[in-house]
């Protein structure tokens, strides 16, 4: 097994059961104590876990630290699929859409495939483009640029210039945090600049975010809540949180 695959599985286990024992990992992967020790040291240095006596646990929730794409795509999948179905109601046959790279938009792409026959979709995500190519009637415009391997996408000045050549009916934007005081926030600076360019070139903006993202603040600002048209989330959203956003004039769809 490759080191990357072992790291991914360790993180998947942690997000399922919140703690792991070194002895269990040794037995699971059939490797030495030293190998697991190095794995846990590396993942702790990257901020993905906290080593404790005999094993490791998840650190306190930190929306300023981005988990690997391969780990994020296994988290809150039920919620992502639920909100993807809700988001479909804002799409019409024949429209043009921006989809930025995210595990949430990957689920949304699958939902679009099942519901629509004719769409034009512009994306910087290799995974989303690969999924949508299976639909012959879809027009897929892949945004060129510098490849960011860990996120399976492209970013950079060329990608931003490429986006500037197009207009879209809708931008389905993913974020890592939504706050009434800080607005919409996310991680990578390169990806954020591309999001901002997509914002500029879209008639309407719909934010797709599972309920854990509400009242969370991530590393870097993307835009204020006044720049978007609505937020689509899942039914797990807290009622009090929902009311505060609605009182502030923010439209949230969750069912």
Q: Supply the number of helical segments.
A: 10
Q: Terminal Cα separation, in Å?
A: 42 Å
Low-confidence parts lasting 5 or more residues at pLDDT below 50?
A: none
- Could you say what the CATH architecture of the largest domain is? 3-Layer(aba) Sandwich
H-E order: HEHHEEHHEHEHEEEHEEEHEEEHE
Would you tell me the structural class of the helices and strands?
alpha/beta
Keywords:
single chain, 255 residues, alpha/beta, Arc Repressor Mutant, subunit A, Rossmann fold, three-stranded antiparallel β-sheet, 10 helices
Verbal overview:
A 7-stranded parallel β-sheet has the order 6-5-4-9-12-14-15, sandwiched between helices. It is globular. It has 2 domains: 3-60, Arc Repressor Mutant, subunit A, CATH 1.10.10; 76-253, Rossmann fold (3-Layer(aba) Sandwich), CATH 3.40.50. α7 (126-132) links the parallel β5 (120-123) and β6 (139-142). It contains 10 helices and 15 strands. 39% of the residues lie in helices and 22% in strands. The mean pLDDT is 90. It has helices spanning 3-17, 22-29, 33-45, 69-72, 77-87, 103-115, 126-132, 157-163, 189-200, 239-247; strands at residues 19-21, 50-52, 55-57, 96-99, 120-123, 139-142, 146-148, 153-155, 168-174, 177-179, 183-186, 202-208, 220-223, 230-232, 252-253. The protein is α/β, with parallel strands linked by helices and 255 residues long.
């Amino acid at each position: 097994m490759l080191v990357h695959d072992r790291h991914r599985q360790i993180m998947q286990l942690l997000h399922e059961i919140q703690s792991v024992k070194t002895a269990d990992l040794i037995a699971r992967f059939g490797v030495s104590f030293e190998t697991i020790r190095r794995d846990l040291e590396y993942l702790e240095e990257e901020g993905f876990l906290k080593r404790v006596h005999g094993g490791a646990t998840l650190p306190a929730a930190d929306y300023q630290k981005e988990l690997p794409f391969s780990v994020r795509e296994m988290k809150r999948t039920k919620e992502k699929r639920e909100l993807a179905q809700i988001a479909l109601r804002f799409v019409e046959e024949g429209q043009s859409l921006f989809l930025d790279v995210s595990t949430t938009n990957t689920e949304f792409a699958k939902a679009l495939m099942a519901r629509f026959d004719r769409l034009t979709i512009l994306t910087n995500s290799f995974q989303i483009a690969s999924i949508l190519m299976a639909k012959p009637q879809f027009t897929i415009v892949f945004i060129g640029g510098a490849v960011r391997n860990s996120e399976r996408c492209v970013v950079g000045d060329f990608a931003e210039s490429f986006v500037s050549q197009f207009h879209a009916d809708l931008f389905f934007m993913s974020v890592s945090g939504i706050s009434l005081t800080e607005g919409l926030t996310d991680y990578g600076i390169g990806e954020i600049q591309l999001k901002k360019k997509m914002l500029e070139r879209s008639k309407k903006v719909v934010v797709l975010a599972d309920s854990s993202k509400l009242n969370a603040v991530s590393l870097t600002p993307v835009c204020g809540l006044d720049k978007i048209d609505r937020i689509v989330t899942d039914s797990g959203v807290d009622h009090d949180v929902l009311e505060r956003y609605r009182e502030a004039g923010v439209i949230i769809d969750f069912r």
